[in-house]
């Protein structure tokens, strides 16, 4: 699927953020830990969620998805995950810890995800071994045994590894202490849900977390709003001009992105909404360096680069989290006339006027960034391989159209 986009139209109105992709995926993984029903509301109907439900069904769980609510029930008994399904999303790797805890083993052929770097899983593996599991890497990742308790320090605050180890620990009656954990809002929601299931968790939302697990029961939860989606609509309005209110969001979840935008645009923060006003003319952003939460989120790097491409002035972006998350989009923005140079992990951008072009998305957030740039460009653009975007943005075309964007999906 491609998007045909007519640039130069201001955006005005309200848009509601959907539930967070990177929050619901670990919650679905955690549902393996109990045979009792788990009910999650405010779930986004996106490809990654649909594929995660297929993976849960492959383990033996029953799933139902209706009107934004997902119910997962039944017993997980099969821990050999289908390779084709695992390859569709990075989130498949999150099943390692919960399947190990529930069934005494798990085999993950190869997880998928955005082509933004190598995406190794050495921290997941090292952590599971340190806590008592046997893990081999002959064909993908195969772990077995049980978590015996203990302490493990992550060499870096990996989001996925933190989530996997939390799930593995949640069924262990002996205490497990994890140090240098990721502290993203999505990780904190997983901790809250594991506690609602019966695990005792101290240090929630901090970098040192202790889990005392045991027999876990079902529960229900409302998925937190998607902070990346929220920031995407704010950045798009900033780039093309207009006034947009993003509803059902949590301003503090946007980390360093919001202060950066406040320095260039009129931003009003409500309890659960953010309004931005832009005349489409703004200075470059100076120096941006991506970092774990609450720093500048790597998932907002490509969208911010598209915004910087139409600024008046210079922006330097350093991508510290993923080794290959700059080059492709820079080449595509250059097709639209952007003045952007990438050397290693550093992009130097001198804002300019963009013109429409045919560009190709290579990953989820990069694809959204190309749509942002096309909406700000003069003339018609085509964003090819836009299916990537549908992995993480619910009703993307409809939400933008309702704000006044000239965007139409066509089959490629
Ligand atoms: C999660 O990926 C998100 N995905 C990513 O969002 C997000 O960019 C990332 O966290 C960082 O916030 C999901 O939650 C499904 P990491 P994850 O483990 O868990 C290295 C999106 O667009 N690393 O925190 O894979 C890794 O290579 C996606 O929604 C190891 O070296 O990220 C990377 O350089 C893209 N060994 C860094 O750590 C490991 O064992 C951060 O990775 C694990 C990670």
UniProtKB/TrEMBL annotation:
Q: Which reaction does it catalyse?
A: phosphoenolpyruvate + UDP-N-acetyl-alpha-D-glucosamine = UDP-N-acetyl-3-O-(1-carboxyvinyl)-alpha-D-glucosamine + phosphate
Q: In which pathway does it act?
A: Cell wall biogenesis; peptidoglycan biosynthesis
| Broadest EC class assigned to this enzyme | transferase
**Which stretches are annotated as coiled coil?**
none
Listed EC numbers = 2.5.1.7
Residue ranges of domain Enolpyruvate transferase in the record? 7-400
Q: Do the record's keywords include Cell cycle? A: yes
What Pfam families does the record tag this protein with? EPSP_synthase
Organism superkingdom: Bacteria
- What keywords would UniProt list here? Cell cycle, Cell division, Cell shape, Cell wall biogenesis/degradation, Cytoplasm, Peptidoglycan synthesis, Transferase
**One of this protein's GO BP terms?**
cell wall organization
Keyword Transcription regulation part of the UniProt annotation: no
Looking up InterPro entries in the UniProt record yields: Enolpyruvate_Tfrase_dom (IPR001986), Enolpyruvate_Tfrase_sf (IPR036968), MurA_subfamily (IPR050068), RNA3'P_cycl/enolpyr_Trfase_a/b (IPR013792)
Localization, per the record, is: Cytoplasm
Return one GO MF term: UDP-N-acetylglucosamine 1-carboxyvinyltransferase activity
What are the GO cellular component annotations? cytoplasm
Name the family the entry cites.
Belongs to the EPSP synthase family. MurA subfamily.
Q: Which PANTHER family match?
A: UDP-N-ACETYLGLUCOSAMINE 1-CARBOXYVINYLTRANSFERASE
Q: Please report the name of this protein according to its UniProt entry.
A: UDP-N-acetylglucosamine 1-carboxyvinyltransferase
Organism ancestry: Bacteria, Pseudomonadati, Myxococcota, Myxococcia, Myxococcales
């Amino acid at each position: 699927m491609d998007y045909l986009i007519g640039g130069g139209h201001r955006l005005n109105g309200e848009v509601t953020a959907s539930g967070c992709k990177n929050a619901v995926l670990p919650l679905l993984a955690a549902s393996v830990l109990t045979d009792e029903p788990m009910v999650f509301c405010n779930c986004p109907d996106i490809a990654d969620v649909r594929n995660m439900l297929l993976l849960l069904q492959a383990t033996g769980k029953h799933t139902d998805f209706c009107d934004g609510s997902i119910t997962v029930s039944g017993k997980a008994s099969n821990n050999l995950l289908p390779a084709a399904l695992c390859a569709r999303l990075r989130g498949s790797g999150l099943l390692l810890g919960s399947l190990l805890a529930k069934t005494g083993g798990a085999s993950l052929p190869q997880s998928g995800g955005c082509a933004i770097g190598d995406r190794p899983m050495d921290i997941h593996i090292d952590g599971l071994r340190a806590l008592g599991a046997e893990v081999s890497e002959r064909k993908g990742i195969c772990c077995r045994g049980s978590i015996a308790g203990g302490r493990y320090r992550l060499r870096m605050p990996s989001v996925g590894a933190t989530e996997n180890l939390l799930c593995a620990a949640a069924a262990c009656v002996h205490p497990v202490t994890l140090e240098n954990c990721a502290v993203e809002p999505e990780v904190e929601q997983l901790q809250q849900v594991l506690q609602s299931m019966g695990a005792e968790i101290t240090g929630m939302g901090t970098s040192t977390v202790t889990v005392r697990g045991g027999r876990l029961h079902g529960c229900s939860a409302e998925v937190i709003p998607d902070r990346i989606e929220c920031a995407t609509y704010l950045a798009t309005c900033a780039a093309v001009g207009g006034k947009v209110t993003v509803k059902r969001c949590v301003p503090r979840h946007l980390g360093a992105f919001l202060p950066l935008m406040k320095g260039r645009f009129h931003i009003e923060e409500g309890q659960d909404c953010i309004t931005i006003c832009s005349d489409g003319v703004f200075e470059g952003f100076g120096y941006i360096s991506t970092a774990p939460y609450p720093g500048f989120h790597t998932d907002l790097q490509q969208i911010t680069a598209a915004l910087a491409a139409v600024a008046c002035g210079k922006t330097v972006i350093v991508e510290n989290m993923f080794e290959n998350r700059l080059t492709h989009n820079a080449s595509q923005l250059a097709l639209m006339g952007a003045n952007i140079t990438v050397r290693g992990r550093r992009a130097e951008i001198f804002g300019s006027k963009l013109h429409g072009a045919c560009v190709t998305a290579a990953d989820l957030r990069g694809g959204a960034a190309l749509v942002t740039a096309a909406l700000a460009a003069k003339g018609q653009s085509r964003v090819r391989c836009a299916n990537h975007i549908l992995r993480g943005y619910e009703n993307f075309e409809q939400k933008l159209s309702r704000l006044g964007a000239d965007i139409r999906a066509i089959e490629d």
